[in-house]
Specification:
Blueprint: E1 3-6, E2 10-13, E3 16-18, E4 21-24, E5 27-29, E6 39-42, E7 45-48, E8 50-55, E9 59-60, E10 63-64, H1 67-79, E11 82-87, E12 105-107, E13 113-114, E14 125-126, H2 132-142, E15 146-150, E16 152-155, E17 160-163, H3 167-179, E18 183-188, H4 194-200, E19 204-207, H5 213-222, E20 226-227, H6 230-233, H7 236-243, H8 248-259, H9 261-270, H10 290-297, H11 303-309, H12 312-318, E21 331-334, E22 350-353, E23 356-359
Parallel strand pairs: 1-6, 8-11, 11-12, 13-14, 15-18, 18-19, 19-20
Antiparallel strand pairs: 1-4, 2-3, 4-5, 7-21, 9-10, 16-17, 21-22, 22-23
Bound molecules: zinc ion.
Zinc ion binds at residues 54, 56, 88, 280, 283.
Length: 363
């Protein structure tokens, strides 16, 4: 059996670093294997397979892709070191990915839930507000334990972002999602949508650009992580420009949030909110951008926090394997420690998925 000897260090958790590890078959072990057959030594810092917390497989700017393109998207993510994807909504049923050993592990949120004219066309299951609790439960049963709500979007009559759902509907929907054994996350750009989501028991927040200090304190107290998607927030200037003539209040708000984006992420961190890393790939952003997103986040918060948020911390939150004895060998090896040099995430020496070296370095 082929064996990889990882000479380490191996970053297991916030306070656990191992000197070396071995990949035997599809498993990781910290005990030196007895037989000394076909051993390949791979030097470098080992990190649990990266996690993209906000990635859309099977979606592009026009809506659902065909399955072949979804496979290409997931492969590009994999080759950048992303070995676990929490899908943040897809119009394509991507459950076939589960059967593909060569593709990253995928935790699907089934279809996004939005209202007609209150989100991008062809993306979401568009429903009337009163149907939210029923539909949220239905999507909870179709996904892999996650539901994705669009909580706010531009309201063209108001000329600004407004919430899509009342607090009562959110509470009812969250109760149904939780009763079905699932969790829910929500797209939010605005301030107005956040309080009712937190009150309703939302499990995670996407973007979160409108969060106030009070929201941050509440999210920290409730253990609700935020996925800041800085590459997406960088598009806010473009959204503002496109809407400026008709919707000046919206445009001004989007510009303000864009200007404060790094300060905002630092405020979240200082408030004690868990920050996880997500690219928002699939709509307009390309796949494979996790190293770029992590580099952006490291402009706002310490790099070791970004590395944790892109790997073991996200895995624990999702209930996925970390690099413990006997776990699936899903890991990435880098020539230097990304906690000291975040840019090294762009140049993995080896990407190992289910024990197979799938990408990285010279092969
Ligand atoms: Zn998204």
């Amino acid at each position: 059996m082929a064996v990889l000897h990882l000479t380490g260090p191996v970053l297991v958790d916030d306070d656990r670093v191992e000197d070396h590890a071995w990949v035997v078959g599809d498993r990781i072990t910290f005990e030196r294997p007895r037989h000394s057959g076909n051993v390949t030594t791979v030097p470098g810092t080992v990190v649990p397979g990266l996690v993209d917390m906000h990635c859309h497989v099977g979606l592009d700017s026009g809506g659902a892709t065909d399955p072949d393109l979804a496979v290409k998207q997931a492969t590009v993510d994999r080759d950048a070191g992303t070995l676990l994807i929490r899908d943040a909504g897809s119009p394509l049923d991507t459950s076939f990915v589960h059967a593909r050993d060569d593709l990253p592990r995928l935790i699907r949120a089934a279809r996004f839930i939005a209202r007609p004219k209150r989100y991008l066309r062809h993306y979401a299951r568009e429903i009337e507000p009163a149907d939210l609790p029923d539909v949220a439960e239905d999507e909870a049963r179709k996904g892999d334990g996650w539901v994705k709500l669009i909580a706010d979007w531009i309201d063209r009559d108001e000329g600004d972002l407004t919430p899509l759902w009342t607090p009562e509907l959110l509470r009812a929907a969250m109760a149904r999602v939780h009763a079905a054994g699932a969790r829910a996350t929500a797209h939010t750009f605005s301030t107005e949508a956040v309080g009712p989501l937190l009150e309703a028991g939302i499990d995670c927040l996407e973007h979160g650009t409108g969060m106030t200090a009070e929201h941050m304190a509440q999210a920290a107290a409730q253990g609700v992580p935020v996925v800041p998607t800085l590459l997406q927030v960088d598009n806010f200037v473009g959204f503002a420009d496109a809407g400026a003539a008709k919707f000046p209040r919206y445009a001004a708000r989007m510009r303000r949030m864009h200007e404060r984006r790094y300060d905002h992420v630092r405020d979240l961190y200082e408030a004690g909110v868990t920050l996880l890393v997500g690219t928002d790939a699939g709509g307009t952003l390309g796949h494979g951008l996790l190293p770029q997103e992590a580099t952006q986040m490291a402009r706002a918060i310490p790099a070791p926090e970004v590395v944790a948020g892109a790997s073991w911390r996200a895995r624990r939150f999702l209930g996925a394997d970390t690099l413990t004895e006997g776990a699936s060998a899903d890991l990435v090896v880098y020539p230097r420690d990304p906690r000291a040099d975040i840019g090294v995430l762009h140049e993995p020496t080896a990407v190992v998925l289910r024990g197979a070296r799938v990408a990285g370095g010279a092969g």
